[in-house]
Amino acid sequence: MKRNWSVLVLLSLVGLLALTACGGESSTPTVQTAATQAPANPTAPAVATPKGTPLPAATATGTAPKAALTCPPVQPLPANAQLAARVNGVGIPLDDYNRQFAQAQAAVTQSPGFDPKSQAGQDALKSLKQQVLDQMIDDVVISMQADREGIKVTDDTLNAHIAQMIQDAGGVDKLNNYLTTHQMTLADLCSQVRNQLIGEAMLKRVTAALPTSADQVHARHILVPTAAEAQAILTQLQNGADFATLAKKYSKDEATAANGGDLGWFPRDVMDPRFEAVAFQLKVGEISQVVQTQYGYHIIQVLGHETRPLPPEVIQNKQQQAFLAWLQAVRDTMKIDRLVQ
């Protein structure tokens, strides 16, 4: 099952977005590795809590403000605690799961047009329960693997991030009001921030070797609904007609027609496979034969072909795909018991 690692973070809770509006760009978390800190006791009990809330980023101000609140120590999970799931024997508390789902449900039910009594609404809430638990399991899996690789978020880093959130929010009182409104404790918030920082550090490590440049083509196209139309346009091009002029006149691709069909630069694995295969085979300046895809019939001309830096959105997508593949592979090595439906 394909899952977006950050989907739940974006969907479930929205409260701290108000605080984020006061903040700035995310700072890179400081982590300790095995070279600077001895590994934690692998048998020590752990309590996992969900990311849940979209967390405001600490503004890069050079020196973080002194913390008005400090995160409490993580408490061992009581032996008799009810659980929502276990990951390699580490329990996810049922109370945490219920609270996280309630917060996610509140956010979803406030969406315009959402009807919790409809079949579609019921199906959405059922799916949301699974997403909440999956996210909580992912947090534990990522934290366990980070610990194995010597990646830890220091208390100083965590408290500095909380302090910056307080400053960005406008003071301790505003942050406390948020926590009260959303039935969260400071420990909940600290756990969410720690999970986020660990996740960011692991994402950086997992995707460090991914390329930031790739073979790309600059192409333009004309898209029409029938093969006959495409062939007629191709004949005009072969007789010397201007490609951009015909694209503006005939192309049904509303996003590019006004620009003469210009698609800009793109790497592989972005366009329809049939379209892409032809585009990367053409020589610069060459015009293709008619190419059929799920969208219709295309005529393609390549304007450039070279290795170029990847666009930020493509890099982000590739990083997410690589991280999800890594996460699934790690999950597959762990014993995961889901105790709620």
So how many helices?
11
The class by helix and strand makeup works out as alpha+beta
Query: Largest sheet at a glance?
Result: 4 strands, antiparallel
What is the CATH topology of the largest domain? Triger factor/SurA peptide-binding fold
Percentage of β-strand residues: 5-15%
How many structural domains can be distinguished in the coordinates? 2
Low-confidence stretches: 1-67
Shape: elongated
Give the N-to-C terminal Cα separation. 17 Å
Class of the largest domain in CATH?
Answer: Mainly Alpha
Strand order of the largest sheet: 6-5-8-7
Provide the CATH architecture of the largest domain.
Orthogonal Bundle
Order of helices and strands: HHEEEHHEHHHEHHEHEEHE
Q: What's the mean pLDDT score?
A: 83
What share of residues is helical? 40-55%
